[in-house]
Amino acid sequence: MSTPVNGSPGLRVGRPFGIPVYVSPTWLIVAAFITISFQKVFAGRLPGYSEAATYAVALAFAVLLYLSVLLHELAHCVVAKHYGLPVRRITLYLLGGVSEIEREPETAGREFNVAFAGPLVSLGLAGIGYLVSRYLPSEGIVAVLVLQLWSSNLIVGIFNLLPGLPLDGGRMLRAGVWKITRDSTTGTVAAAWVGRGVAVAVVVIPLMLNLMAGQDPSWDTLWLVVLASFIWMGASQSLRVARVRARLPQLRARLLARRALPVTAEVPLSEALRRANDAGAGAMVVVDHDGRPVGIVNEAAINATPEQRRPWVNVGSLARTLEPSLVLGADLEGESLLDAMRGTPSGEYLLVERGGEIYGVLATADVNRMFSGV
Length: 374
Description:
alpha/beta; CBS-domain; 3 domains
């Protein structure tokens, strides 16, 4: 699975192929779940071994299974890096692994190849494990572990090929629709809706089969609900991303710019606001006595300043120093504009013409309003 995650990545455990790998604390939950669940399986297949020994084998299986998941995610990342896509990290967590690839492939073919690499490795591991198991004794810890690992990798590979986002099969479906329609957004929407259908099927089909067999829901049903929730949320997030992308052509720095009033740092805030109101300006830029911009007055800081204090507060104290990354070209638009803003998060940015002349101020709040309701 290859959708980005937010928050603390967890404990860093290595850097294969130059890609940082982290293990989330939530992995301990699933490791414990796998160990407890499979202890009975291994106890049945390893008669004569103590309970402690079968727990140890189950824990070893949990670790080896996640090493397989790591290889699955590494396959995505290696192919992505081959195409020049930046990879931030891999995180192993509660529901498997996630590869954080910072940019989407430029073509549908590359999207398909990056997505297919993971399931291909899982199925390859299953095939290798199956061949090895044929030459091992039918009994013993190694034989039992290999059998369980290759069958688990087969399930992981097939499950990830289900045609719905955020699963790898969903990305492959997205690539196919993208290729046919020549529109990546259409591909995303189609694969995301199929992903929602997959989420429902993951719970409903096993539940229906249990009811038809006269069996009551088990703890496995709860696990399926958790898995389905993950798929549903991932698909929904993909739909939101698609809606955002649909609005990107309307995102132009020039159209969103506020007229900027130049003021020197010592001007009282109340006076600066009066001048801005008279000039019809929606932002203030602090300039030195030669007229060069040195800072942008923060709108949030203005709003937080009580009206009775504004005559005694100068604008310089409410301004953010104008770093080079806060100066953007007035011609920026679409994803290029968003990338520039992500580089240095701020409430305001100074927009300049190609010759360096001040065009205006871009407020992050105005950009956010464009995507409100998405």
